[in-house]
Specification:
By secondary structure, the protein is mainly α. 74% of the residues lie in helices and 0% in strands. It has two domains: 19-190, MFS general substrate transporter like domains (Growth Hormone, Chain: A, Up-down Bundle), CATH 1.20.1250; 220-415, Growth Hormone, Chain: A (Up-down Bundle). It contains 17 helices and no strands. One of its GO terms (molecular function) is transmembrane transporter activity.
Length: 431
């Protein structure tokens, strides 16, 4: 491939998206560049604070529990208050709570503040995803979600290295650094990111309020829960998330039991980040106008059997190969699922629907470590990897059955009937 063709491909990957999206994308990148707590919280508690491993696990669980709680709360705020106010409140709260956490020494205070950090840091996700859906045309949404996901992983990859260097000198400096970066993200949103909520979107759950579209009823959380097809999709997303989450606890445990070192695990899992950064954009260009039904079936099978192949791994190279397989599933599934959520959501209920989708992953993050560890202890790692293959197959069958008739965005009958992205309201502070 020539340099000219690479440049052309890159230009086509980023062209046609509104300016507001790129400011939102930049805020996402800035936010992830400052990640520290999620990387070194356990080491901070054990090495710096002298706490036990079980206490570190408890605090980590509270951090995750906070994310579960805020998934729904953030979705409701997104619809009621608006996308921009929700992001500002969430990011400002995150900055303050992260800074406070760095100064905590009492075990109860640490646990409480960690729970608050989990709530604050996750509350903005439904707002970001709803805003992307608001401002990007249906045919470009998969690409937009993929670019945002790419920014998350690029920022996290850079911040992981930077956080390691900072932690060698001062954990407190890391906490304050994350607080500063998150605050900078909030300032960027305040100055450059306009509100995008469609007129009447706050109608959800309020009596007599005007709907965003005259033919659409008001949306409440009850509406979301009664949407059978959508909740089935959320359930399938939960199954897929359970598979991917095995990389965080079950995989390193299995590798350790197999005689591999922590360095070996680090090298194997690094393949995940490298591939996402390298392949997310070109793969998305290939899949963005293809059937979401087929893509999610393929992703489910690749994810399930990618982890299933781990049962046969006997060398670092084979472990790295299995990571390549399920990483491809992650690259395909992430933007496709986010685009699917938008297409199944009423315009005035995007925040609540996105919040429920976020909840599926937050709950999976809590359940997967316990489930994976329990299966390994009782039945062995081989049973867990076989179970991943079974779960992936079930998810693939579910997507195949549920998504009949759903075509690529912009086609028929899928995205063609959806109204164009509305004009966004320019705040007085925008520059």
């Amino acid at each position: 491939m020539s340099v000219a063709s690479v440049r052309r491909a890159a230009r086509e990957s980023v062209s046609g998206l509104p300016r507001e999206f790129w400011w939102l994308w930049t805020s996402t990148l800035v936010n992830r560049l400052g990640a520290f707590v999620s990387i070194f919280l356990a080491m901070f508690l054990t090495a710096d604070q002298g706490r036990s491993a079980s206490y570190a696990g408890l605090v980590g669980s509270l951090l995750g529990l906070g994310s579960v709680v805020s998934s729904i709360g953030g979705g409701v705020m997104t619809d009621r208050l608006g996308r921009r106010p929700t992001m500002l409140v969430a990011q400002a709260s995150t900055a303050v709570s992260v800074a406070v956490l760095g100064f905590m020494t009492d075990p109860v205070a640490i646990a409480v503040v960690a729970f608050v950090v989990g709530m604050a840091s996750n509350a903005s996700r439904p707002a970001v995803q709803a805003m992307i859906a608001d401002i990007v045309a249906p045919a470009d949404r998969v690409r937009a979600f993929a670019l945002n996901y790419w920014a998350i992983n690029l920022g996290f990859a850079i911040s992981s290295v930077a956080a390691g260097l900072v932690a060698r000198y001062s954990y407190l400096l890391g906490f304050l650094g994350e607080a500063a970066m998150t605050l900078a993200c909030a300032v960027l949103v305040f100055v450059k990111v306009p509100e995008s909520r469609p007129d009447g979107a706050a109608a959800g759950g309020t009596k007599g309020a005007r709907s965003a579209r005259s033919d659409e009823p008001a949306v409440s959380m009850g509406t979301v829960l009664r949407d059978g097809r959508y909740m089935a999709v959320v359930g399938l997303s939960f199954l897929l998330a359970l598979i991917f989450m095995q990389s965080q606890v079950a995989l390193p445990v299995a590798m350790t039991e197999g005689g591999f070192s922590t360095t070996d695990y680090g090298l194997a899992i690094a393949v995940n980040g490298v591939l996402i950064v390298a392949l997310q954009i070109p793969v998305t260009r290939f899949i963005e106008h293809r059937s979401p039904r087929r893509l999610l079936v393929v992703a489910s099978l690749l994810g399930g059997y990618g982890f299933g192949l781990t049962a046969f791994a006997d060398s670092l190279a084979v472990y790295a190969l299995t990571v390549c397989v399920w990483t491809l599933a992650e690259i395909i599934s992430s933007p496709t699922q986010m685009g699917l959520v938008v297409r199944l959501s009423p315009v005035q209920g995007r925040g609540r629907y996105q919040g429920m989708a976020t909840l599926a992953w937050a709950v999976a993050a809590l359940v997967a470590p316990v489930a994976g560890g329990t299966v390994i202890d009782r039945f062995g790692a081989g049973a867990l990897w076989a179970g991943c293959a079974v779960v992936g197959t079930l998810a693939a069958g579910g997507y195949w059955a549920l998504m009949r008739g759903l075509t690529p965005a912009g086609g028929s009958p899928g995205g063609a009937a959806e109204p164009a992205a509305p004009a966004v309201e320019q705040p007085a502070t925008a520059g």
